[in-house]
Amino acid sequence: MKLRHILLGLSFAAMAFAAGAQQPIVIKFSHVVAQDTPKGKGAEYFKQRAEELTKGRVKVEVYPNSTLYKDKEELEALQLGAVQMLAPSLAKFGPLGVKEFELFDLPYIFDNYEELRRVTQGPVGKSLLKKLESKGILGLAYWDNGFKVMSANKPLRTPDDFKGLKMRIQSSNVLDAQMRALGAIPQKMAFSEVYQALQTGVVDGTENPPSNLYTQKMHEVQKYVTLSDHGYLGYAVIVNKKFWEGLPADIRAALEKAMEEATKYANDIAKKENDDALEAVRKSGKTEIITLTAEQRKAWKKALVKVHEQMADRIGKDLIQEVYKETGFDPAKF
Ligand code: LMR
Prior knowledge:
Distance between the termini: 43 Å
Bound molecules: (2S)-2-hydroxybutanedioic acid
Number of strands: 11
């Protein structure tokens, strides 16, 4: 962990406090992706609306692209109060001890954004955010990215094509099981390290929505991208609970409104951002884009849906059933 950063952050916070109420309240919002992504743009939108709605009494500093903290560090920094706001992917809450969020990583559990929304906006979504409170964290909202593609330096058309490939994943055991179900060797790795790992051959391939693939230039070091839509990637926007509850009520209300607006904005742009990124990858001519045939897609589903059952004890059988009820997913069909 970058202890120096954390100590610096804490001493700045103490100085701001000592300087009195005239100083704006600073919210450091750290994240790991590029600015030109659904999350990056959502964070900037929140900054703008938060500063407007509080008439400058709050200043939001957005740190994109892991410039302040990498994946694991940022969660520790939030708990320590060195940053106030993050939006980690839902695949990254396992190490914090809230592994139920990994249900969002189950292959093919959502067919589209509408099914996903029924879960995030319904009782399941709320109950998951509630679980963060015992960790000193409040969950404010869910932000979309999109559906993932698979990439490698060889074409990935059938599950057999994955045999023996080293595939970078986020820190989720469901993703680990997913890659193993395909015969690949999963490697958990911070997002900030993926480009170099692909470039140097430390890993052979990876998965992400096109917006992340393109803005990290992964397509420059991956010859093939398969439009598999095999899983979803989204975020929970979270804050340090003590910080948030310690805010003056009028400020907190204004920030909640800014968050509501930013959530709508981020979720409205997510699909187009990904469509545009895929188009840009296609135009770059560096990567061949593979569309699966109906039969190939069926083979992927057959290989991957069994991960639901394998991971039921980790996520909770009842929770998975609740999601099935919301989305109409029927595992018996595969
Ligand atoms: C990843 O690590 O692949 C993604 O979660 C990055 C992100 O935040 O979108």
